[in-house]
Design goal:
Bound molecules: adenosine-5'-triphosphate, magnesium ion
Number of domains of chain B: 2
Largest sheet of chain A: none
Radius of gyration of chain A: 24 Å
Strand order of the largest sheet of chain B: 2-1-3-4-5-11
CATH topology of the largest domain in chain B: Rossmann fold
Strand content of chain A: under 5%
CATH superfamily of the largest domain in chain B: Response regulator
Oligomer: heterotrimer
Radius of gyration of chain B: 24 Å
Chain lengths: 479, 370, 634
């Protein structure tokens, strides 16, 4: 507990160190932890799979910690502060799942057939049975089957090695893997939002980043991984960034609205990549895909199949931290946010608004490019026609959900990753179309974008902050 | 004002439950809307998950490409084959629709981890993923449609189609039709997508079929056509189709996704005729169906059914390839539909004879090009 | 005169501030009640409570003797309360009539509506929860529903325990949605797709009709409203002497008229009580007089008005009674007959206030700012500056007087690099800074208090501290390498906030939560705390209370005495007269004359501002010569 007490102090003390010290510390941390990364990730996956246990352990820890600091009132306050922002999102998810469930139940022909044949009760019974199967599959596909995990834990040390354990944590792993591009792309759009820019072009920038990373990945050979991998990553990021910077530059120079230009750049990307993939970069004629990248450019996996979680996940988390640092701790970030919040005031403060637009678009494009890089180097290891997955468009919603804050974006991305990971299993086990998951995602977005709905449904109290938002209306010289 | 809406709602809730309850009892003769798939592009319905799998039933999965299961094209066609297998062979079939390239491996894993016996992967875009995943799961059989493995994989079969065998008689048929409709200047045409071998295979045989007609009848039917260079450009296809028609073409063979459909649309606008591709497009082009004299079909459903049947019978051609031909029904000509009776019986007989000739190996289709 | 409104013990707390502390007052029918108080005394907060934008933490409000609860502005409007905010809530591209009618539809649920919601909700709950677990027979279904209910109750219990839920917890809207969705889906899938049963089809049609007719009726009602509204607006404006054309576009109207539209809007909603929060801050003296006429007309016809201002003169002219707030508490109640400006000022601030600035003679040094033949355009690309010449020396205050809209705004923007000049030169400390970037100008030691503080001077959503480094965030001590040193910033901010008496609970709260006057103080604090050579101040005391005005005036003179050159732009003649050493009068984009402050009277200045040629040709000529014909040696 003493350790808990010290923690904030420790973080603050590290925060006060000069930049290079912190960087060194960070690198040191990575180097020390890397050899154990396999086990740490496995632990993480198990913790997700057994989240009720994790949660209870956490609460117990908190309860113990509270003994020293004032007991239940302190704990209540601590929880309140942490959970306040989560109430509306959590209820949104629940509500969206319920509505999605209704859709599952009542869009199935068989249910109505059963109603005709066996009466309404029979139909409803079938509908609920379908729902149960579908959601069970959704859950197992994304968070794993807790019972199976416990059983597999019992077998550890058996002759099959880690095999059984890996098979049961595939769900959590898939969720994290699916969330990786979401995190990157969501951060990209969020960063743009902070600068007052609506980057609709993430989809295209993802494509460019993916393409360039893969090309660098296969065209250079014989390099050691420590050189090749970072090079490929960087190339993809910078390519995405430059691509996006075109829109920023056009806005700064000519005032062309970035929504228009990024949409158009998307089309350029789609056509350009189609041509490249079925033309100059094609592996052999008729395949419409590139060669595989060299092994030295692989984003390594932590474990082995079927657990495909790769270093892209860690990179995404680092990117989130860096984005947060950049936005809220640096002078550039300050400029960017000022330009986003009030361009006139930014000009007044001597900032160059145009330059900031270009910079913001560049960085936003870099992040989006990294989404492509993580897919190309971590999963597909090449790029083929039809690589677009809509991450770029979903990411707009993610940035909104996450209130354009890195922590929020990561949270929202994990949620979307979970839903998306479970969709395949839901379809294969229950025959429920993956579109249901899109419906649920969209509903979540609607509810979070219009929290008044959720608050009205559950009679939640208007938060203080909301009152302030209302108050903005009434400001003025005399406000 | 809002109040009464609400009153209605609540009353309706109650009423609907009651109605649903009695609606079922007194009218046993009322059938639910038809759901048999036939050749029609009905929405694919998955079987009830609650039904316990028949003891020992084979589990067959299908991973679609990004087109989705209801693409009115090869994904849907594959699933129709599996549905038939489900009915006739008593297997248990499921599918997963891929959302993106990055999902292919994940979706294959999904089936493999659920201990499926056979997994179909649909489309050449899944070639890599299948080749990568098959060795990882040696206990599972894989079948890749429009794919090619080099070297061969012991537990996978590549399914390809000799579409030229169907395109050749179609070229013949088209030439015959053009002569019939426009004896002074008979010309036939095509609007194709990208110039890649799978597309060229159609075109070469189509041209050869027309040439065979000329040879037999001593006519001079011209073949004109374009490769638009895109599968997704109906507008371009239409423009190119129009210019072909301006040059005197009487019938257009649309080869290559939406682009080809654009060419057929141009024929429709000019009161001319078209030929569909891949599936029986009579059912997928409701606008143009009345001008389609036939379609050059790749019977994925037959191929899928055939491969599945082979597995059931323990004759799965693992490590080999399965070629869809005229002989095994893997490719074929669609019925004439609205042109039944308009196509002279004589011409039809000649076409059937050519089909038999190809099956017997007596007639060459001109593919592969020497 | 009867009491129309009575407030008792109103208390409102914001994190860290007690904005209103047991405030009580009464408003009588047909009177003008003025509220006075320092910046941040809690006037706007009190008004926002009356108008339902905030809810009080404690205290009661009675209207005509009836206790009322005002949850939101709709309640306030229903009770006959109207409010005109400082920043108008008008849509510029709509006409006057459209703006007035907008949002007059009722939007609350009635009681029976809620009751039905409950019934529908319970039905849907049973229907839905039952199946979360597959069930075999009816009793299992009921059991499952029970379990689901208990689980939900437990979840709610937890939420209540943690304080997330309001007291009245109803599921109604939620169940309503669920009920609607399930009914609709059932009907669509089960019956409509199967065409044989006729009744469900009809039922479904009725449902569709019900749903569709609602928006249709809304549209119809709005159209009708428009028509009736136009006629009512005309009657109203005649009745109260508010000349407005209902069909004019808001964007085309001057500020004073827009304000009338706001007043009309409240009257249209049959307000009996009008709240005007600092309505005169942006009006010209003439417009203010017109407003006062209107106010008199309104009270003559039985309306009651609450009026807030910082200008003591206005209070003395128009108010029937005056209530003074300080630190959220009522500290006095009086009337213009019983008091004087000085006394009022003292009541507000709690000490004696010098209403006259005492300043010594200026000792001008060398020329700091030098403007020659400057021309520029306004936003509509019309010439706004037509050849401005002026100079400011170190250690003197040059006041730029003039009626608003004669080019002062553009002059300041061109000088600070925010807007391009189309001709002429600007030199600061000998450097040519014509069309230089704002950063260049700032780095030469120029401070700028912008005219529109919310647009240019502040990022309202940022914390107070961040706004204090807006111009030099990139330099030490605030920056180290690429990083901002927030520890340093916070230290600095604490110090400056204390020094300039910015009333804020914390330097970390968003600036928009500060009272209007305190926002202005943040800017002043920022600009005065840097080492500067030239201060360009546009309307520096707009919206400030007398105490703060006094303070800022003293600081300004202090800067002058430290050798800073000050260019003061203000529409307040009193301020110009009180602070300036020399006065330049702007008229239609030109300086029509520059005179020594002690050689001119208010009246003469007023004439100059109206564009009249000065009477004393000689002295005027000399001054003009001085500015035009080059720079004095120095
Ligand atoms: N939304 C809010 N959140 C937090 N504090 C607030 C908020 N609104 C007002 N305050 C605080 O309440 C106090 C009273 O503010 P209020 O706006 O009522 O002052 P005021 O009397 O109108 O001042 P001014 O004359 O400057 O307009 C101030 O200290 C202010 O900082
Ligand atoms: Mg105020």
């Amino acid at each position: 507990m003493a350790e808990q007490e010290k923690r904030p102090g420790l973080i603050r003390r590290i925060g006060a160190q000069p930049l290079w010290v912190r960087m060194l510390l960070f690198v040191a941390l990575i180097v020390i932890v890397a050899p154990f990364s396999k086990w740490l990730i496995l632990l993480l996956l198990l913790a997700i799979g057994l989240w009720p246990v994790t949660l209870l352990l956490g609460l117990a820890g908190l309860a113990v910690a509270s003994i020293w600091r004032g007991g239940w009132p302190w704990m209540k306050d601590w929880l309140r502060r942490r959970l306040r922002g989560l109430v509306v999102p959590a209820l949104s998810v629940v509500t969206a799942l319920i509505i999605g469930g209704l859709v599952i139940m009542f869009t199935d022909q068989a249910v109505f057939q059963a109603m005709q044949e066996g009466g309404i009760l029979e139909g409803i019974r079938l509908a609920f049975a379908n729902l149960a199967t579908a959601y069970k599959a959704l859950y197992e596909g994304s968070l794993g089957n807790p019972r199976a995990i416990v059983e597999a834990l019992g077998q550890v040390g058996g002759e099959e090695g880690l095999g059984p354990l890996l098979r049961v944590v595939r769900g959590p792993s898939d969720s994290l893997v699916q969330s990786v591009p979401y995190i990157f792309a969501g951060l990209a759009v969020a960063l743009g939002f902070r600068a007052g820019l609506f980057n609709i072009g993430a989809e295209g920038q993802i494509g460019i980043g993916w393409l360039v990373a893969v090309v660098v990945g296969y065209s250079l050979t014989g390099l050691p991984a420590v050189v090749h991998l970072p090079l490929a990553i960087l190339a993809g990021a910078v390519a995405g960034g430059l691509w996006a910077a075109i829109a920023g530059f056009l806005k700064a120079r000519t005032g062309a609205h970035e929504v228009i230009t990024t949409i158009m750049l998307n089309y350029v990307t789609f056509r350009l990549s189609a041509w490249l993939l079925c033309g100059p970069l094609e592996l052999t004629q008729g395949t419409c895909r590139t060669q595989e990248i060299a092994e030295s450019a692989y984003l390594p996996w932590f474990l082995e199949r079927p657990v495909t979680i790769h270093w892209g996940f860690v990179l995404a988390l680092i990117a989130a931290v860096l984005t947060g640092w950049f936005l809220f701790r640096t002078t550039w970030g300050f400029e960017l946010r000022t330009v986003g919040a009030n361009p006139s005031a930014a000009r007044y403060g001597g900032m160059r608004v145009g330059k900031t637009f270009v910079l913001a678009m560049f960085l936003s494009g870099c992040l989006a490019g990294l989404a492509g890089v993580s897919q190309g180097l971590g999963i597909t290891r090449n790029i083929a026609l039809g690589f677009q997955a809509g991450y770029g468009f979903d990411s707009i919603a993610l940035a909104l959900l996450g209130k354009s804050h890195p922590v929020g974006v990561v949270g929202a991305s994990l949620l979307f990753g979970v839903l998306r990971a479970g969709a395949g299993r839901m379809q294969s086990v229950a025959g429920v179309p993956t579109e249901i998951v899109q419906i649920v995602q969209s509903l979540v977005i609607i509810f979070i974008a219009a929290p008044a709905i959720i608050r009205a449904i559950y009679r939640l109290r208007k938060p203080r902050e909301e009152e302030l938002e209302v108050a903005v209306f009434s400001r003025g010289w005399g406000a | 004002m809002k109040k009464w809406i609400f009153v209605t709602l609540v009353v309706l809730l109650a009423a609907s439950m009651v109605l649903a309850g009695c609606g079922a009892t007194p009218e046993p003769e009322v059938e639910p809307t038809a759901t048999q798939p036939a050749a029609q592009p009905t929405e694919p319905t998955a079987p009830e998950a609650t039904e316990p799998p028949a003891a020992g039933a084979l589990k067959v999965g299908m991973v679609s490409d990004v087109g989705g299961i209801d693409d009115a094209s090869f994904n849907q066609n594959t699933w129709e084959g599996l549905q038939r297998a489900q009915e006739e062979l008593g297997i248990q079939a499921q599918f997963i629709e891929s959302q993106a390239q990055a999902d292919y491996e994940k979706n294959i894993t999904e089936f493999a981890e659920q201990d499926y016996d056979l997994v179909f992967t649909v489309g050449f875009l899944l070639n890599d993923a299948t080749a990568k995943m098959a060795p990882e799961y040696p206990d599972v059989y894989f079948a890749g449609i429009d794919q090619w493995y080099d070297p061969a994989i012991p537990n996978a079969v590549a399914i390809t189609f000799n579409v030229d065998e169907a395109a050749f008689p179609i070229g013949y048929l088209a030439a015959g039709w053009a002569v019939l409709q426009d004896p002074d200047d008979p010309q036939i045409g095509y609007v194709a997508g990208m110039q890649i071998p799978p597309v060229e295979q159609f075109i070469v045989a189509y041209e050869a079929g027309a040439a065979y007609y000329n040879e037999q009848k001593g006519t001079d039917v011209q073949v004109k056509g374009v490769y638009v260079g895109d599968f997704e450009a109906p507008d371009q296809g239409k423009i190119q189709g129009q210019s072909l028609i301006d040059e005197g073409v009487d019938i257009i063979f649309g080869v290559g996704g939406k682009t080809g459909n654009g060419g057929i649309a141009a024929a429709k606008e000019n009161g001319l005729w078209g030929i569909g591709v891949d599936v029986d497009q009579y059912f997928t082009l409701p606008n143009e169906k009345d001008i389609l004299i036939t379609s050059c079909m790749k019977r994925l459903d037959n191929a899928v059914f055939g491969v599945t049947e082979a597995l059931v019978n323990g004759e799965f051609p693992a490590g080999g390839i399965y070629v869809g031909t005229l002989e095994n029904g893997g490719v074929g000509l669609a019925p004439y539909h609205d042109f039944e009776g308009e196509i002279p019986a004589e011409l039809d007989a000649e076409v059937q004879a050519i089909v038999q000739g190809i099956i017997a190996g007596e007639i060459g289709t001109g593919w592969p090009v020497q | 005169m009867t009491r129309i409104l009575e407030a008792r013990n109103i208390t409102k707390r914001f994190p860290g501030v007690l904005a209103n502390d047991r405030v009580g007052f009464t408003l009588k029918e047909g009177e003008i009640l003025a509220f006075l108080g320092e910046n941040g005394a809690g006037k706007s907060t009190l008004m926002n409570i009356l108008y339902g934008l905030y809810t009080q933490d404690e205290g009661e409000i009675e209207i005509r003797g009836q206790p009322v609860e005002i949850q939101d502005p709709n309640d306030a409007i229903a009770l006959g309360i109207g409010m005109v905010h400082q920043h108008f809530q008008l849509v510029p591209v709509f006409t006057v009539a459209e703006n007035i009618v907008m949002g007059t539809e009722p939007t609350r649920f009635s009681f029976s509506w809620r009751l039905l919601g409950w019934l529908g909700g319970v039905a849907a709950l049973l229907f839905f929860l039952g199946g979360l677990f597959a069930f075999e027979n009816l009793s299992q279904w009921l059991l499952a529903a029970l379990a689901g209910g208990i689980a939900t109750a437990a979840l709610y219990g937890l939420l209540i325990l943690l304080g997330f839920l309001s007291r009245r917890l109803t599921f109604r809207l939620y169940f309503l949605l669920v009920a609607a969705a399930s009914v609709a889906l059932l009907l669509i899938r089960g019956f409509v797709l199967d065409p044989s049963p006729q009744i469900p089809l009809l039922v479904f049609g009725g449902l569709l009709f019900a749903a569709a007719s609602y928006p249709a009726m809304r549209v119809l009602a709005t159209a009708l409203d428009r028509y009736v509204a136009g006629r009512r607006i005309r009657t109203l404006s005649k009745q109260y002497g508010l000349a407005v054309d209902p069909d004019a576009l808001i964007a085309d109207l001057p500020v004073g008229v827009q304000q009338r539209v706001e007043i009309l809007k409240t009257l249209y909603r049959e307000a009996q009580i009008l709240i005007l929060d600092e309505p005169t801050a942006v009006l010209t003296p003439q417009e203010t007089d017109e407003l006062f006429e209107i106010m008199r007309g309104l009270v003559a016809q039985g309306k009651s008005i609450i009026f807030i201002t910082h200008k003591l003169k206005e209070v003395m002219t128009i108010a029937d009674r005056i209530i003074v707030l300080r630190d959220g508490r009522v500290t006095g109640e009086t009337s213009p007959e019983e008091t004087s400006e000085a006394e009022l000022a003292e009541m507000m601030v709690g000490r004696e206030v010098d209403l006259v600035v005492d300043k010594g003679k200026a000792s001008p040094g060398e020329v700091v700012l030098e403007v020659a033949n400057l021309t520029a355009e306004d936003q509509r690309h019309q010439p706004a500056l037509r050849g401005v010449d002026l100079f400011v020396r170190a250690g003197e205050v040059l006041g730029v007087a003039g009626v608003q809209g004669n080019g002062q705004t553009e002059l300041v923007e061109v000088l600070t690099g925010l807007q391009p000049a189309t001709g002429g030169t600007v030199r600061i400390l000998g450097h040519d800074v014509t069309n230089a970037s704002p950063r260049t100008v700032t780095e030469l030691g120029v401070a700028h208090i912008p005219e529109d503080r919310q647009e240019d001077g502040l990022v309202l959503s940022f914390p107070v501290a961040d706004n204090l480094m807006l111009c030099n965030y990139y330099e030490p001590p605030f920056a180290r390498g690429p990083e901002i040193r927030f520890d340093r910033l916070y230290e600095y901010a604490e110090r400056v906030v204390a020094e300039f008496d910015v009333r804020t609970p914390s330097i970390a709260i968003p600036t928009q939560n500060l009272s209007g006057g305190n926002q202005q103080k943040v800017i002043v604090a920022r600009e005065f705390s840097r080492p500067i050579k030239l201060l360009i101040a546009a309307q520096p005391t707009r919206g400030l209370d007398v105490g703060s005005i006094e303070y800022i005036h003293r600081r300004l003179i202090q800067k002058r005495d430290e050798g800073v050159a000050v260019l003061l732009v203000s529409v307040e003649l009193d301020e110009i007269m009180a602070l300036s050493d020399r006065i330049a009068v702007m008229y239609e984009g030109q300086i029509v004359g520059t005179v020594d402050a002690d050689k001119i009277t208010r009246e003469e200045l007023g004439l100059l501002m109206a564009g009249a040629r000065p009477k004393e040709e000689a002295s005027q000529e000399a001054d003009v010569q001085e500015t035009k014909g080059g720079i004095p040696v120095g």
